[in-house]
Design a protein that fits this description.
The complex is a heterodimer.
Chain A lengths: L1 E9 L6 H14 L3 E14 L3 H12 L5 E4 L13 E7 L6 H14 L7 E12 L3 H12 L5 E7 H7 L26 H10 L6 H12 L1 H10 L7 H10 L2 H4 L6 E6 L2 E6 L1 H14 L5 E3 L6 E4 L4 E9 L1 H6 L1 H17 L6 E11 L15 H17 L5 E8 L8 E11 L1 E2 L2 E2 L10 E6 L22 H4 L5 H16 L5 E4 L4 H13 L2 E4 L12 H6 L5 E6 L4 H10 L4 E7 L4 E6 L2 E7 H4 L6 E6 L14 H10 L8 H5 L9 E3 L2 E2 L5 E2 L3 E3 L8 E7 L9 H19 L6 E8 L13 H22 L3 E7 L3 E4 L2 E4 L3 E10 L16 E5 L10 H6 L11 H16 L5 E4 L4 H13 L2 E5 L22 H6 L6 E5 L4 H7 L5 E8 L3 E5 L5 E6 H16 L5
Parallel strand pairs in A: 7-24, 12-13, 19-22, 30-31, 37-40
Antiparallel strand pairs in A: 1-2, 1-3, 2-5, 4-5, 4-6, 7-8, 9-10, 10-11, 11-14, 12-14, 15-16, 17-20, 17-21, 18-20, 19-21, 22-23, 25-28, 26-27, 28-29, 29-34, 30-34, 32-33, 35-38, 35-39, 36-38, 37-39, 40-41
Helix pairs in contact in A: 1-4, 2-3, 11-24, 13-14, 23-24, 23-26, 27-30
Chain B lengths: L8 E6 L6 H11 L2 E6 H6 L9 E4 L13 H9 L4 H10 L3 E5 L1 H8 L15 E4 L7 E9 L13 E8 L3 E4 L2 H9 L5 E4 L20 E5 L5 E4 L15 H10 L10 H12 L1
Parallel strand pairs in B: 1-2, 1-3, 3-4, 4-11
Antiparallel strand pairs in B: 5-8, 6-7, 6-9, 9-10, 10-11
Helix pairs in contact in B: 1-8
The chains are: A alpha+beta, B alpha/beta.
């Protein structure tokens, strides 16, 4: 076997847009005197193939005769002219290299070679021109061209490059000299030693948990039983790792299930499990009234009824820590990993939609960054690229999302990834949401191979990442391996070739098999049967590996051969690795030797944790905002603020239409410039029904009170769904908590009790609001350690909840969008505007201080939502837009931008005795003009109405607060008159549009459309 | 009543990261075809299946993740797999079959030299679909003007089309001036990106990738092989259009009922008219 290089470059006469973008990145990030960057794609082939064969492969497959030149011998760079520096970026050994894998597969196809006979490793070479020192180039490499955690660089100046004839092929094959073994763990040691054992092995087990684990092996019955099976009295490393994984925060949600003592105003309350008390119990109570809940909190995703014949499965995950380390890999693994949840729910679903919400630090941040903290802009770029590739390459539309900017997210970004699947109600004569496993069913692992990827992913923290362990720390998702696998599994489902399915996520096989074993009553694994990426893995590592793109299935023995041959015909790896039993034990062998035998009940036992919470309302300095340039300029400032501006450049890079069911796109209107409130799709399986995906997120309100923050984001998610067209009585919710560490520790987390109290209050906010709206939670997740801590530098995220909604649209032709349509249409505001400006976009921007966080009036809001839905059914709404950050002024501006129209707004319409037909309809308290424009009161919708149908509209709105506040104009100006009748401002809609759309195009270096 | 005439068959290829196969199949069925989705490996094992169909569609997607460049690996698979599928595809087209490549499918047809085939022989790559000049993937709607003098079976009778583009590598570049000249002379550039007034343009964003000659799609000289970057299968319904709610309001104002179909449907309907 030999290493040979193939190099491909864009012809000198043609543009290379990627190189141009890299140039821009270097200039904008580092401001160095750069002249030009060119790019060469490098493939290092490791095989027995001759030079001639390699050349043929390069010429016929890799080279594009119109676009590129290639070389299979001398460096192609020397044919492109001179340069100052050459930098080559390659993956570190063992890191997933999708391009390399595909190249190897094509080489094998071309020359009919067997699996394993060829390896290809991809690299990218950058040829840099400009007056740069070696140090400069090293900075360019580590700050822009690569992530040193997963990639490494080689660097040559032009002279050296020429002298040496370019870079030499380098050994890239991952080889381990480690001999796999199973170790015994002696637990009869002092308590301190137990604790240090847990730390050393990254088990994240408390002393109580370790003692509980030890007591199991001290039981007489267990001793006898173990002897009979010849596994030995002391636990193996496999057993302690499996136990630790099963009991991890990630899998058992210990904080959410803890016994909490909550103190407020000297009152003390005990809460046994936040999850049960607030989240599950809300759903249980509501479910008595909703017959469309199919499967909640049981499976990998929540399932609701969609049409007569189809259900929807919905799950949202977070992938924050990995995205802080490698933004691209973290995000792509996040979204592709989340897909496996609905795909592994019940008998499995077909993934048809993505949603994502992202929280970043300030991309304009200037100045030094603490160690191991990436610049927020770089994190943002990487995360967006990851979401882009994860969705686009799997062919799943990203139909909804949100982006929030705040410096508190500069330590760890929040990356919420959501995924929706559709499943027929019955599959092979069985309800599709049920999961059954019979003793005797074969355990089959499908998808990728196992490596050291993500071992201890759940407990790994940024401080523990070392230069020597990149293979474990970061994973890179491979969308195509997953796409092939999920396609094949749908075919297998059609042919009834398996009984049950689940995904391999956190905890790998130990979790997936461990959980499915509960259904049959046991499992017996043969660890050595599992296919590996490379040799040298210990059995416990194989069990815990979080290598991506894998599912675990229960296949009845009589269907196994059909299943395996289908997999083979689709180039999908499928391997029987044991069988499900009813022994009551989770067992595993390695090369015939028993290495794990744990009682299932013991393994899954609950060991509650006790925590303290203490609430004290924060002190807020009351202050009026200062906006010396007037309200018009204030509006321009808000819609060009990072948190107010258009997300369109990001959305353009996400395919939001693949699947063919797009009804309401993320950006709508004449130039697709106006933001929709949610995404609506009508899947091919349906006739006229569709569903909305929407969300609510506003961590800023957490600075005042997380109770109201939670209530507001729930209301926003619900309202967004309703505005698009969802039936308010058929909306299901998901809750995703991202909290800073709320466990009190005198040194590490002195404010832990407050943060836990914030968590308690947020849960109450969700509970009260969900109960009042009768919107059940069907799934959710919590992530509890969103802090960055290196030395003395600590950054904690604002307590954040993302509420995601899936709402059923009975007929997609009822849907509306926010764009104003025709001059003369009448503008109404539904709902009440109050003085709710605390932590509003307006107050944050202009230095206002207030305690008045929006308070959700659920009874009134629900009346508005049901009425609004009735208006849609009757076709009485020409445009509808949710009011949220920035209040009515930004909503009106967005409706103008979306429609390419103007509007005249009269704030006196909000006054008691205003101009609404049918007399006084809105009396929600007198407000100043700035308050009326920018208040963020919940439950409000801005609509426009055909003037010839105003009477009908007014008659139907009886019973809700609403106000006639203006008209749509053809002249493209937004003009606002104050409550005194005085003209406050008149803005050119084109200027509004320009200011609204520009910021993120600038941040991302994309050309404005 | 006589026995219903058998519907013409459409075969939609799937596998290895093709991902618009469901909606492409639905579009074929919606136009009247009897449609099947078939995995590339199944077709490799039974290439004669092509001849049972009047339309073969290579849908959009990210075959092999675009890892080696768009369409590179998939076309290599067709060319080098043992089954000699490439020859069968050529035979199918020569016998009068219709072949449609959308987005990734278009890229594959160009890599295979099935398009534009300006010298009327298949197999030599004459053009390419290079990375968009702006350097990133883009999902947006574009307007296409149809060359009414073109002999393309799929675009006959159409004036303009509003369709979404969703690609990172869609910049049509002919390999030489001669190729471009032949393309023009043989009216093979049947759809071009145009501005809102309908004038073909190389300006961003109306031409989202800086395609030469504003080419959004080309056909072969026979008019039966057609490839385009925009996605007709994602624009088959009225409500697929990003501005449909405005159009609805305008129809209401004129007291008219909005149509059921979107522009993309016309491409498949033309294929059906030809095939039936």
């Amino acid at each position: 076997m030999e290493y040979r290089r193939i190099e491909i470059a864009v012809k000198p006469a043609l543009d290379d847009p990627f190189a141009v973008h890299t140039e821009w990145e270097i200039r904008s990030t580092l401001g160095l005197p750069l002249e030009r960057v060119r790019r060469v794609c490098v493939y290092t082939v490791y095989s027995d193939l001759s030079k001639l064969h390699i050349r043929q492969f390069a010429a016929e497959v890799l080279n594009d005769p119109v676009l590129t030149v290639f070389s299979a011998l001398d460096p192609v760079a020397l044919t492109l002219g001179t340069f100052a520096w050459a930098v080559e970026v390659s993956f570190r050994q063992g890191v997933t290299d999708n391009v390399g894998h595909t190249a190897a597969e094509m080489l094998r196809t071309m020359f009919r070679l067997p699996e394993g006979s060829v390896n290809v490793y991809s690299s990218t070479q950058y040829l840099i021109d400009g007056d740069l020192t070696r140090e400069d180039v090293e900075t360019v490499a580590s700050e822009v061209l690569c992530n040193t955690l997963i990639q490494e660089i080689d660097l040559l100046d032009y002279g050296e490059f020429k002298r040496r004839g370019g870079f030499f092929p380098k050994r890239r094959h991952f080889l381990s000299s480690h001999m796999p073994r199973v170790a015994r763990v002696d637990l009869h040691i002092a308590d301190e030693e137990l604790v240090s054992l847990s730390e050393k092995r990254v088990l994240a087990l408390s002393l109580d948990e370790l003692l509980y684990f030890r007591s199991y092996f001290d039981r007489d019955d267990v001793k006898k039983e173990r002897e009979a099976f010849g596994i030995g009295a002391d636990p193996t490393d496999v057993e302690i790792e499996v136990f630790a994984q099963t009991q991890s925060e990630h899998c058992k949600h210990k904080i959410f299930n803890a016994e909490i003592t909550y103190r407020e105003n000297k009152n003390t309350e005990r809460i046994s499990s936040l999850f049960r008390t607030y989240i599950v119990s809300a759903t249980e109570r509501i479910s008595k009234k909703k017959d469309w809940l199919v499967s909640v909190f049981r499976d990998n995703a929540g399932v609701v009824r969609f049409t007569d014949r189809y259900n929807l499965a919905f799950k949202v995950e977070t992938h924050n820590s990995p995205s802080a380390l490698d933004p691209y890999g973290g995000a792509i693994t996040g979204i592709v990993g989340c897909d496996r949840d609905p795909a592994g729910t019940g008998i499995g679903s077909r993934i048809i939609a993505h949603t994502d919400a992202l929280c970043f630090g300030d991309p304009y941040h200037e100045g030094p960054l603490p160690p191991r903290m990436m610049h927020p802009k770089r994190i943002m770029e990487g995360v967006i690229k990851g979401i882009e590739d994860g969705g686009n390459k799997c062919g799943i539309p990203t139909v909804n999302g949100a982006i929030v900017f705040d410096p508190s997210f500069s330590g760890k970004p929040l990356v919420f990834c959501g995924s929706v699947g559709i499943m027929p109600e019955t599959v092979c004569g069985m309800p599709s949401h049920d999961k059954r496993v019979s003793p005797g069913d074969i355990i089959v692992m499908v998808g990728g191979r196992i490596g050291k990827d993500g071992i201890h992913g759940a407990t790994f923290s940024s401080e523990e990442i070392k230069e020597s362990s990149p293979v474990q720390a970061v994973q890179i998702g491979d969308p195509i391996t997953q796409k092939k696998m999920l396609d094949m599994l749908l075919e297998a489902q059609d042919r009834c070739l398996y009984r049950a399915i689940t995904d391999n996520g956190a905890g790998g096989l130990s979790s997936s098999v461990g959980e499915m074993a509960l259904l049959s009553g046991g499992a017996s694994l043969e660890i050595d049967k599992a296919p590996l990426k490379y040799e040298g893995l210990d059995p416990w590592e194989i069990l815990l590996s979080e290598a991506q793109e894998r599912m675990t299935l229960a296949v009845p023995p009589d269907r196994l051969s059909k299943f395996l041959s289908l997999a083979e015909s689709r180039d999908v790896l499928a391997t029987p690795i044991g069988e499900f039993t009813d022994s009551g034990f989770f067992c595993a062998t390695s090369n015939g030797e028993p290495v794990c035998r744990l009682d299932l009940d013991f393994l899954h036992s609950k060991i509650p944790m006790a925590l303290e919470a203490e609430w004290e309302p924060p002190r807020i300095e009351m202050k009026k905002p200062s906006f010396p340039d007037g309200l018009g300029q204030a509006l321009l400032a808000l819609i060009s603020d990072l948190n107010g501006c258009s997300r369109e450049p990001v959305v353009r890079r996400f395919d939001h239409e693949v699947g063919g069911g797009s009804v309401v796109k993320p950006y709508v209107g004449k130039e697709e410039a106006g933001p929709a409130d949610g995404g609506v799709i009508s899947p091919l399986e349906t006739d006229k029904e569709g569903f909305v995906l929407s969300c609510g997120i506003n961590p800023f309100y957490s600075r005042l009170d997380t109770y109201h923050m939670a209530a507001c984001v729930l209301d926003e998610a619900l309202r967004n769904a309703v505005v698009c067209g969802a039936d308010p009585d058929r909306i299901a919710l998901l809750d995703n908590f991202c909290w800073p560490d709320p466990v009190y520790d005198k040194k590490k987390t002195p404010d832990g009790k407050y943060k836990l109290a914030q968590l308690v209050r947020a849960c109450r906010g969700l509970y009260d609001t969900a109960m009042a709206y009768e919107t059940p939670f069907i799934s959710g997740k919590d992530s509890m350690k969103n802090d960055y801590k290196v030395k003395d530098h600590k950054v904690s995220v604002l307590p954040t909840i993302l509420v995601s909604a899936v709402g059923i649209v009975p007929d997609v032709l009822w849907c509306v969008t926010p764009d104003f349509k025709i001059g003369g249409d009448v503008i109404y505001l539904l709902g009440c505007t109050g003085r709710h400006l605390g932590e509003s976009l307006f107050y944050r921007k202009f230095g206002g201080g207030s305690r008045d966080v929006p308070v959700v009036d659920t009874e009134r809001n629900m009346r508005v939502y049901r009425t609004y839905h009735g208006l849609l059914k009757r076709g009485l709404v020409a445009s509808g837009h949710d009011l949220s950050e920035g209040g009515m002024a930004t909503a009106a501006a967005e409706s103008c931008i979306a429609g390419g129209m103007g509007a005249e707004i009269r704030l006196d319409g909000l006054e008691p005795g205003g101009s609404g037909p049918g007399g006084v309809t809105q009396d929600c308290g007198a407000l100043d003009d700035d308050e009326a424009l920018f208040s963020e009161s919940t439950g409000r919708i801005l609509v426009s109405v055909d003037p010839s149908r105003e009477d009908e509209f007014g008659a139907f709105c009886r019973g809700i607060p609403y106000a006639r506040i203006g008209t749509v104009k053809e002249d493209k100006r937004l003009t606002v008159f104050g409550r005194s009748g005085k003209r406050l401002f008149s803005l050119d809609v084109e200027e509004l549009e320009d200011r609204y759309r520009a910021p993120l195009y600038g941040v991302l270096g994309m050309k404005r459309a | 009543m006589g026995k219903a005439k058998k519907k013409p068959g459409a075969l939609v290829l799937t596998g290895y990261g093709i991902n618009c196969d469901y909606e492409s199949a639905a579009a074929c069925t919606g136009a009247g075809f009897e449609t099947i989705r078939m995995h590339l490996n199944d077709l490799l094992g039974d290439g004669k299946r092509l001849f049972q169909n009047r339309l073969v569609v290579l849908p959009g997607g990210f075959s092999f993740g675009d890892d080696l460049g768009s369409g590179v690996a998939f076309s290599a698979k067709i060319r080098y797999a043992e089954a000699a599928l490439f020859d069968l595809v050529c035979g199918y087209v020569e016998k009068g079959g219709l072949l449609l490549g959308i987005c990734n499918g278009f890229q594959i047809l160009v890599r295979l030299g099935l398009l534009p085939a300006t010298e009327k022989s298949y197999g030599t790559q004459e053009a390419t679909l290079a990375p968009n000049r702006e350097g990133y993937f883009v999902d947006r709607w574009v307007r296409l003007s149809v060359d009414k003098s073109s002999g393309c079976v799929f675009t006959g009778g159409i004036k303009t089309l509003d369709l979404p583009v969703r690609h990172g590598e869609g910049r049509f570049l002919p390999g030489s001036k001669q190729v471009l000249r032949r393309l023009e002379r043989q009216t093979q550039i049947c759809v071009r990106y145009c501005d809102p007034e309908g004038v073909p343009t190389e300006e961003f964003p109306y031409n989202p990738n800086a395609s030469v000659a504003a080419a959004a799609g080309v056909c072969d000289p026979s008019g039966r092989v057609f490839g385009l970057m925009p996605h007709p299968e994602a624009a088959t319904r009225f409500y697929h259009h990003p501005d449909w709610t405005k159009r609805r309001r305008l129809y209401e104002k004129e007291r008219n009922v909005p149509p059921e179909y979107g522009d993309g449907h016309l491409i498949f309907a033309n294929a059906f008219e030809y095939a039936k």
